[in-house]
Design a protein that fits this description.
There is one protein chain. The protein has helices at residues 72-75, 121-127, 281-290, 333-336, 377-386, and strands at residues 14-16, 22-23, 30-33, 36-39, 42-48, 51-61, 64-66, 87-98, 104-110, 134-140, 154-157, 160-165, 171-176, 181-185, 189-194, 200-202, 205-206, 218-221, 236-242, 255-263, 275-279, 296-303, 310-315, 324-326, 349-355, 358-364, 391-394, 403-406, 413-415, 429-435. The protein is mainly β and 439 residues long. The strands form 5 sheets. A 13-stranded mixed sheet has the order 14-13-23-11-12-17-18-21-19-20-22-15-16. Strands 2, 5, 6, 8, 24, 25, 26 and 27 form an 8-stranded antiparallel sheet that branches. The longest helix has 10 residues, at 281-290. It starts with 13 loop residues before the first strand and ends with a strand. Residues 312-434 form the Phosphodiester glycosidase domain.
């Protein structure tokens, strides 16, 4: 999904959502919503110990929906639902994961060897699948820069910081070393560079792109980022040799290195085993003053919410749909705000939710009239609330929403949902569920 602004300047669709009737019948049952009879289905199976799948058709009922736009295309940005009047129908894929099971675990993995890279969810699942590490399921995760695949938010994989924004995320899912997980809102992030003289510079991110529109910004890149820095515009790039060869960035752990070179051109190659500081404006001036060749610099990244101890994490940031849908069972006031069009548009959704020790991952198909309309974040929040979820976050959706499962009848990793692009979209990273059981 494109990295567009958190708030739009205009509204094309308005929805008065006064109530939702959620109909989740058993297979083939005839149920009734309002004055209309609705057919719906519900099927499921056990994928492996501690992992269950269910497919549902759910009717979301509202009091009424209206549009003031004279352009019917703009009035129905989600490509479904508005003209139906009082309801939308959605095909929902649900994965239930028991975090207490010792033979299954959650991981956040990259699409490619480099941060600036993309691949499909099914390819990511297959690339991580091996004996003793069988991928049972995979779903798309963070929002990303469409052209390059660089995630917009936070990713920690195997205890290494793959990429991070600053100074915070808007949402997060973290997996702890004991296999438990936490799900919630807003990680505070401190990214601090220290010079030998004690002067400090706050960085804006790790393994992010310094676009020419980002004045007075600085980012630390590792050789995991990609072949070049992809930077644009005026600035400098400082090459650093880590004091410990092949050093990795870990939460809460300082790393040091010596400045080897200062470059004034943009988009320089990223040397293997080296770090690069890329900076513009006042932050480039700081580096010129405090980071000459031969200077030792120290960098440290700290995260609250216990993320310094996390083995895996993903956190949404800098995107209008990086929303918390539920906090302790309640829909946040900002999601209930019906003057905000971002809460009302119908799109495919990927959602992570929790109930006790259980993690639930959902894909709601959309933009396919006659099959599945898609959900607004408000409707999705109310739906999850009706299921008794404790906490829930919205992650990347739209054409990115993909649900891959290892079907027990044939053992193959299969895309179960219908991505709205009519084919899988290459994405940045994925949540995978892994079995470590002996084979």
């Amino acid at each position: 999904m494109s990295a567009f602004a958190k708030k739009q300047k205009y509204a094309v669709l308005s929805t008065l959502l006064l109530g939702i009737t959620l109909i989740i019948p058993v297979a083939g049952a005839q149920v009734y919503g309002g004055n209309q009879a609705v057919k719906a289905s519900k099927t499921g199976f056990v994928v492996a110990r501690g992992v269950e799948h269910e497919t549902k058709t759910v009717r979301f009922e509202t009091m009424f929906r209206f549009s003031e736009s004279p352009d019917p295309v703009k009035a129905i940005r989600g490509k479904g639902g508005a003209e139906e009047g009082s309801a939308v129908t959605n095909r929902i894929f649900e994965l239930k994961f028991d975090a207490s099971d010792p033979q299954t675990r959650l991981e956040i993995v990259s699409a490619a060897p480099h941060v600036a890279g993309k691949d499909t969810v099914s390819h990511i699942a297959k690339a991580n699948d091996r004996a003793g590490h069988r991928v049972l399921a995979a779903l798309n995760a963070d929002f990303f820069h469409v052209a390059t695949g660089v995630p917009l938010g936070l990713q920690i994989t195997g205890g290494e910081i793959v990429t991070s924004p600053g100074p915070k995320t808007d949402t997060f899912l973290a997996v702890n070393k004991d296999g438990s997980f936490t799900l919630g809102k807003s990680i505070a992030i401190s990214l601090v560079l220290s010079a030998e003289n004690g002067q400090q510079l706050t960085l804006n991110g790790i393994n992010k792109i310094r676009a020419k529109t980002l004045t007075n910004h600085s980012f630390l890149l590792t050789d995991r980022f990609g072949g070049s820095t992809l930077s644009e515009g005026n600035g400098i790039e400082v090459i650093i040799a880590p004091s410990t060869p092949n050093a990795k960035l870990a939460p809460g752990q300082p790393v040091s290195g010596v400045v080897e070179a200062i470059l004034t051109a943009a988009n320089n190659p990223v040397p293997p085993g080296k770090f690069i500081l890329t900076a513009s404006g006042s932050k480039a001036a700081w580096l010129k003053q405090h980071a000459p060749v031969g200077q030792t610099l120290t960098f440290k990244a700290d995260f609250d919410q216990g993320i310094n101890e996390a083995l895996y994490a993903v956190g949404g940031a800098d995107h209008r749909f990086a929303d918390v849908l539920l906090q302790k069972g309640q829909v946040p006031p900002e999601v209930l705000d019906m003057t905000d069009v971002n809460n009302l548009e119908h799109h495919p959704r990927t959602i992570f939710a929790s109930k006790g020790r259980m993690l639930y991952a959902y894909v709601i198909d959309g933009r396919q009239k006659g099959y599945s309309d898609g959900a607004s974040v408000l409707e999705a929040a109310r739906y999850l609330q009706s299921l008794g979820m404790d906490d829930a976050i919205n992650v990347d959706g739209g054409g990115s929403s993909t649900y891959v499962l290892r079907k027990p009848d044939d053992g193959r990793l299969t895309v179960l949902n219908r991505p709205s692009d009519k084919e899988e979209r290459p994405i940045a990273n994925a949540l995978i569920v892994v079995s470590t059981a002996s084979e």
